[in-house]
Amino acid sequence: MLRRAMFRCGQLCSVEFDLRAEPLYFTLSSSPQVLHHAHQQLFGDCGKLFSLHVQCANRIEKAQTHAEIKHKLSSTLSRDCDVFEASSFIPDVANSVVKGFFIRDKSTTTLSEDLLNTLRQSERVCVFSYKREGQYCWQELWSPVNQVEGSERQYITPAAAAEHHPSTLNIRNSDVFYSMDEAYKVLQECTDIIPESKEVLKLVDEQLETSRGDGFPVIVIEGLDATGKTTLTEALRESLNATLLKSPPQCLAPFRQRFDSEPPLIRRAFYALGNYITAAHIGKESLRAPVIVDRYWHSTAAYAIATAVGGRVENLPRPGSELYQWPEDLLQPNLVLLLTVNPEERLRRLRDRGQDKTVEEAELEINQFFRLKVEEAYKRIQNPACIIVDASPSPQEVLQQVQHLIRNKCHL
Ligand SMILES: Nc1ncnc2c1ncn2[C@@H]1O[C@H](COP(=O)(O)OP(=O)(O)O)[C@@H](O)[C@H]1O
Ligand SMILES: Nc1ccn([C@H]2C[C@H](O)[C@@H](COP(=O)(O)OP(=O)(O)O)O2)c(=O)n1
């Protein structure tokens, strides 16, 4: 029964309805509880209030349903409807999060109810409505005709903020992958709906075992778009007579746009496998020359964590969290340099370069919360941690600065 799966005892629900503020937390009880003033904002007299939560057993179907509903809600509901991200979860219990949405409909139409009814009938979604009497508010399973039989009132009970933001509970092997096998399994589960998955897995299978013998140094250059990675890596290739590699590797270029359009679970598994293919190339190339890599695991983990964690930088997993630990089965570089420039200079360089931006890069520009989270996540990744390089000076000066660092750290 959907309901029982929804709210187990001790489960909290969090609603992100103000990026600048903490999410709103509440739990449910069978006895009336007075609404906290902060809850008035969401549960106050503001038209029809619903929540819907994705309930699919299969994780691929769950990820695609969530993405499909998010698109439907944003493209179908009127401007009188506010849609907020919601999560029901058990505090500090990994993988306990059930993602959903809160819809506050101030319109006079039945559009939101028609849409919710269609979703409800798909059996992949659980829909609740909210009623209010004075200081009390309760939730009930919703149906357009009448209340669902046996649906007792569950009163909204204000709860204190969870110690760890709910979005950090599901990151392991859903947003960030800590072994090749875990990422490989996700794409195996997609082969019937995304045929390209087979070709990507074939390319992974073809990679020789990653041997990291006593080869030449491996140096990774990281940073946001337009910080100067391409310019610097090409200059280092020449000055060090090195091999230049990228992640994702060139062999995955034909599939990238396809996987960029998939939900995070699938998209991040794709980029994780790209790192393992690049690792095999590094293992081979480093036997004969120094290797320079343009993006690698730091990018994959930092963008995935920053995307998964809602709201402000403070919601990121704490420094030292195991979520920042390098995967044990992924080849480690000798040195990781994080290029940083101030936002204005980066935007100037982006404009001067004139290339199309990826959706995520566009997000970096409009959503400073996202950019700050990417930058902070980069810095928290350990084993190896990155060394921060001020990439504001001229290309020549940045190159000299980096060559000095490489000489000191890698004796090159
Ligand atoms: N140190 C620098 N100073 C000024 N402009 C730079 C510098 N490094 C790169 N650029 C310019 O900035 C733009 C983005 O550089 P690029 O190397 O493509 O960055 P990324 O690979 O990080 O996206 C390009 O037009 C490049 O010529
Ligand atoms: N190893 C990598 C490389 C890129 N990504 C993701 C992270 C961002 O969404 C994009 C950035 O890649 P993109 O090629 O656009 O970046 P640059 O143009 O090289 O600066 O790809 C990743 O997850 N893992």
From TrEMBL:
Catalytic activity from the UniProt record: dCMP + ATP = dCDP + ADP; CMP + ATP = CDP + ADP; dTMP + ATP = dTDP + ADP
Keywords: ATP-binding, Coiled coil, Kinase, Mitochondrion, Nucleotide biosynthesis, Nucleotide-binding, Pyrimidine biosynthesis, Transferase, Transit peptide
Cellular component GO terms, alphabetical: mitochondrion
Keyword Mitochondrion: yes
Example GO biological process: dTTP biosynthetic process
Entry's EC annotation: 2.7.4.14, 2.7.4.9
SUPFAM superfamilies listed in its UniProt record: P-loop containing nucleoside triphosphate hydrolases
Pfam families the record matches: Thymidylate_kin
UniProt-listed InterPro entries: P-loop_NTPase, Thymidylate_kin-like_dom, Thymidylate_kinase, UMP-CMP_kinase_2
Gene Ontology MF term list: ATP binding; dTMP kinase activity; nucleoside diphosphate kinase activity; nucleoside monophosphate kinase activity
Family in the record: Belongs to the thymidylate kinase family.
Name of the molecule in the record: UMP-CMP kinase 2, mitochondrial
Native source organism of the sequence: Culter alburnus
